[in-house]
């Protein structure tokens, strides 16, 4: 399934003192806004975005990928406001679907809290509630915290499997391919994402986030262990949990076809969440 191959448009948008690189795939239906993982530029998600049969918006935060260096250091609520300004600048529809991957899942949660009227459905992928989380493999977390970001983080399938998790080298090869498009963040951009994360937690207000939410997790994630997804699904009032068996942290690249099927089913469903979903979050 595809619809974003030839119609995807790349541009630079100047807002709130920042210059952000974005990619937009136009089309009918509710756009899916994708908040990417820590230090990950939008090019890493190329194969995933192309597989989606819906309009999408991807963006590089300040100092990440093709965006200009960060003009200001922002906490997560300020980044949420920046995202809202970006949607306005691009004349996006009033209601959008929002997907957050890893670090981007925190921004997605914050945006859904701050701009509830703008979010139709929420997808949280390989993420947690913030710093108050069950930590992943220390060696993997330390490697990703380096200022080089994802550049040369996983040059081979075996490297990707060791760093991020995932049970099959042939599937992890897709992660290595995606990360081969990673761009080194600026020092200020890298520091800015760490700054936004410091002290951040959505735990105090998750129970009030009344947005139909799909929580997706890989059960072999070395960065954000699956128990964090169970916590999110338990606390969110309208959550459904989907587990990618054998998936590591980058299962959106590793198991793209499976993830797209689950994602599209959730976003296209007439009833997003049922009582049965709530009964099976654990």
Count of folded domains: 1
Class by SSE composition: alpha/beta
Oligomer state of the chains in this structure: single chain
Proportion of beta-strand residues: 15-25%
Pattern of helices and strands: EEEHEHEHEHHHHEHEHHH
- Ranges where pLDDT stays below 50 over 5 or more residues in a row are none
Termini separation comes to: 31 Å
Average pLDDT over all residues: 94
Question: Major sheet: order of its strands?
Answer: 1-2-4-3-5-6-7-8
What are the salient characteristics of this protein?
282 residues, alpha/beta, Rossmann fold, eight-stranded mixed sheet, 11 helices, hydrolase, AB_hydrolase, AB_hydrolase_1
Task: Walk me through the structure.
- Residues 31-255 form the AB hydrolase-1 domain.
- This protein has 282 residues and is an alpha/beta fold.
- It has one domain: Rossmann fold.
- The protein has eleven helices and eight strands.
- An eight-stranded mixed β-sheet has the order 1-2-4-3-5-6-7-8, with helices on both faces.
- Helix 3 links the parallel strand 5 and strand 6 (119-125).
Write the layout of secondary structure elements.
Elements: E1 9-15, E2 18-25, E3 32-35, H1 46-51, E4 56-59, H2 76-89, E5 96-101, H3 103-114, E6 119-125, H4 138-144, H5 157-164, H6 169-179, H7 187-197, E7 213-218, H8 227-235, E8 239-244, H9 251-254, H10 256-268, H11 275-279
Helix pairs in contact: 2-3, 5-6
